[in-house]
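Translate sequence into structure tokens.
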Amino acid sequence: MSKSLGNGIGLRDSDGQIAAKVRAARTDARRLITFEPDRRPEVANLVRIAALCAGRDPVALADEIGGGGAAALKAVVVDSITALLAPIRERRAIERVSSRCGSWSLPTGTRSALQNSTSAA
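Result follows.
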């Protein structure tokens, strides 16, 4: 993924938008996925993004994808990015609700839900 305007992944991007951006990223014609930044910079960039998001070693990740090709690599990249962003999105959603409803509504609602679930059991 290049540094071009509009080609970055934003926190507000949906999973579909992220997938579309990753699918648009350039790779090369070789099916075997390897981490060779000097020889295969486009592939290495995608491997690096997935590895950083997943907290993995890029060489090991590339070896794991192996002969899966660019489609498998891009699927791993999308999964890694969305997994990294999921808890951030969740916190943002809670903060949005909290700011609209007042800070008291989430703890009160949680307490009420817990009481209802306990009394129903």
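Note: The mean pLDDT is 86.
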